[in-house]
Amino acid sequence: xxxxxxxxxxxxxxxxxxxxxxxxxxxxxxxxxxxxxxxxxxxxxxxxxxxxxxxxxxxxxxxxxxxxxxxxxxxxxxxxxxxxxxxxxxxxxxxxxxxxxxxxxxxxxxxxxxxxxxxxxxxxxxxxxxxxxxxxxxxxxxxxxxxxxxxxxxxxxxxxxxxxxxxxxxxxxxxxxxxxxxxxxxxxxxxxxxxxxxxxxxxxxxxxxxxxxxxxxxxxxxxxxxxxxxxxxxxxxxxxxxxxxxxxxxxxxxxxxxxxxxxxxxxxxxxxxxxxxxxxxxxxxxxxxxxxxxxxxxxxxxxxxxxx
Amino acid sequence: xxxxxxxxxxxxxxxxxxxxxxxxxxxxxxxxxxxxxxxxxxxxxxxxxxxxxxxxxxxxxxxxxxxxxxxxxxxxxxxxxxxxxxxxxxxxxxxxxxxxxxxxxxxxxxxxxxxxxxxxxxxxxxxxxxxxxxxxxxxxxxxxxxxxxxxxxxxxxxxxxxxxxxxxxxxxxxxxxxxxxxxxxxxxxxxxxxxxxxxxxxxxxxxxxxxxxxxxxxxxxxxxxxxxxxxxxxxxxxxxxxxxxxxxxxxxxxxxxxxxxxxxxxxxxxxxxxxxxxxxxxxxxxxxxxx
Amino acid sequence: xxxxxxxxxxxxxxxxxxxxxxxxxxxxxxxxxxxxxxxxxxxxxxxxxxxxxxxxxxxxxxxxxxxxxxxxxxxxxxxxxxxxxxxxxxxxxxxxxxxxxxxxxxxxxxxxxxxxxxxxxxxxxxxxxxxxxxxxxxxxxxxxxxxxxxxxxxxxxxxxxxxxxxxxxxxxxxxxxxxxxxxxxxxxxxxxxxxxxxxxxxxxxxxxxxxxxxxxxxxxxxxxxxxxxxxxxxxxxxxxxxxxxxxxxxxxxxxxxxxxxxxxxxxxxxxxxxxxxxxxxxxxxxxxxxxxxxxxxxxxxxxxxxxxxxxxxxxxxxxxxxxxxxxxxxxxxxxxxxxxxxxxxxxxxxxxxxxxxxxxxxxxxxxxxxxxxxxxxxxxxxxxxxxxxxxxxxxxxxxxxxxxxxxx
Lengths: 308, 291, 408
Hints:
The complex is a heterotrimer of chains A (308), B (291) and C (408).
Chain A lengths: L1 H19 L3 H26 L7 H19 L3 H23 L4 H20 L10 E2 L12 H25 L1 H11 L1 H6 L4 H20 L2 H5 L1 E2 L1 H4 L2 H14 L5 H20 L2 H18 L3 H11 L1
Antiparallel strand pairs in A: 1-2
Chain B lengths: L4 H31 L7 H17 L4 H26 L7 H24 L14 E4 L2 E4 H23 L1 H11 L1 H6 L4 H26 L7 H15 L4 H22 L4 H15 L8
Antiparallel strand pairs in B: 1-2
Chain C lengths: L1 H20 L2 E7 L6 H20 L8 E7 L7 H10 L5 E3 L4 H4 L3 H6 L4 E3 L14 E3 L6 H4 L3 H7 L4 E7 L2 H16 L3 E8 L7 H10 L3 E6 L1 H14 L7 E6 L5 H7 L7 E4 L10 H15 L9 H18 L4 H10 L2 E3 L2 E3 L13 E5 L16 E5 L12 H4 L3
Helix pairs in contact in C: 2-12, 2-13, 13-14
């Protein structure tokens, strides 16, 4: 019950902020943070709960953006359609990737996901209709009431997406799916032997994770007004989607949220005040620090403190 | 697109030259990952680091190959330190460490890449040498000397490393530690020290590979990303633990890339290495010569 | 005494007004690193020169001018974020586009949507799809026929029938390629090789070999600096074949002095576009180059600054004239002024067409001749780049075939 009330409160606060804040840049930056909440939460379904480290977040994210581009160019489709279509394609890619690679152990799975990213990127680069390597300019439609600007609306869309992702993650974590995934992470062979349908569960996690990541990518087209493959499929997305849950804590749904909000905000502040390189360095350094010193993430640290 | 037998023959020739270079680049990973089972996804990043080191020395007029050899001992120590840290933090603690170890090396690769951007900027860097810019003629075909130099260095490197691993005690111990660690311990050798040594060698080789990289063409900090695909493709195609397989796998990749480049165009080339990798993983995950 | 007091009060009031109003902020991103940095760094020096000059004369509308410039690293991915920041965080009064088409393309929808004036900076046809009506490009070309003046004609005069097309896969090169294809069709030439390469390509040996195998009469290349240099080196290493009569056309970067110096004699024979070659006369331009050269040495940028810097200085001059005439910073008023009037700049008079490009283009195609290695001074002399078109600037005919012109 507390969970649902807090969601409503957040929605309300965001609404007030939208009315009060006149500077569009807050929504511009806030969108990015929320986008990472979705990506981190989605990543954690497979990476944190099941223990399969996916390095191909960028593949799904970029694909989502390009599905949006395709729909905009072909049908002038509205944003909701773009997001749903992207989610569907993301789910399909998740299924395909899962079927092909989930039999591989540890590092091979991870390398295979990097391979998928490059291959999807190469296919897009060779697809002239969506702009190829050159990229494509997108003209945003005018914004609709009650939002003053399109960016404000995108901010709210991202907020809703983030909430959907968190609701899904929470459900999975507390349900039999989550228990099954944890069993897989701890010892896959033992789980198989005890009758856990490991392949089905892993595929389910892949599909849901993929759908969410692609859904997060779809609004990028409207957000940036310009999409090109190198930045849409950038490895930075994959590393961030991995670093944020590790920093926040992979065992609980709130870990990725914490990691994304914290790291995302730091990144935005650094970009505005110092440089955009440094913000990528921040991700790398924090990732290494947490992986080495605090593998349970902030959630783990909090647990240890509160147990005392 | 003009498609002729001559063009194809030239493509194969260039593929052989470049493929040997890929083999040399991957051989360090073959040791680190193939033999030692360390998920060293940062290996290409160390190679790029070596390339920049060569560039720095090149500003003082040092020949690139010499720079590579000078940097090798430095990188050896770096490799030893890195492995030590990795061992203490991850390997000692068990299987879950595999996932975190991977994340760790990814983080390291990122830090190296961004460090290079902060230090040198995103501009491409090159070196000058007598053999860069000229070419030799083989009948109708003109072959750039820089590729020949890289090819020659790569062959020598592969040859000497294979020799080392099969003839010397430490070398054989490195191969043994991959196959049967308890037996090695019984023979009086300390496996951790052996692995450290091996990792050091792998990183030293990365330095020389870096020198070759900047001879072959200009470098920029983000180059490690495309080489992750190439090196892992070669190592997996060869089969984990096979040194001679690395050379064959490198040649296969080089030729495949060259043919795709010639027949389909440059925009498909990045997918060749990764595509081949996925194919191998799907069809024959133990590679060509794997154990 | 009273007069002194009055003067003092006036000074106080005006300085307070000066201070209270704050400076006029002009914001932009400029490639300081990455492939376009060779031009970007020099261009920024020229813009800062203009800011200094204008402030020395008392500023604009009684206020100092301040230039805020970020480094976009020659990347299209960075500019939307940077320009959003300039508009919403730095709250600049005026915007100048980054140097070159690729970093500029992403921000066109942004400025159109927010109704802002954008001063273009050497991009090619970047406004073609967006059709923003407050866009004014400083580059002396307008469309493809203006860019290629003389290139394909010279080829045809030498009996050329076939063309090989090598274009980088990015906005500029693709825009140029499309324009070139229209001209190729018009001249009834046959395309025997066509390749679009990714911007990250460093090795062109395969493509040059394939071009040679296709035996084209003309080779048209549209590339950015990294690619241009690599292509020239590959041609030097492998050779492009004896059939080629004309090589070049749209290679960016072969106008930057540091690149010209480092590539040296490999430039010989290449026919390429340029905006200024020694010998062309514009009012005040030689004096400008003399002043620029001093600053360039200090800032360690392109020492001659022929290609792009005077045009960046001209952006400043155009803004100055428009602001002084309309006495406002309102983007719509400035845009109307720029559209209707002819501006006087150090690169000659500029008048705009309805698409925001020059109504009277002045870009040339020139062939490199007699270039030697490691010599910067030679580029100050006329005759090292022989202009083959358009007619009004022509100084000579093309030397063909290409391999002969290279002295090989």
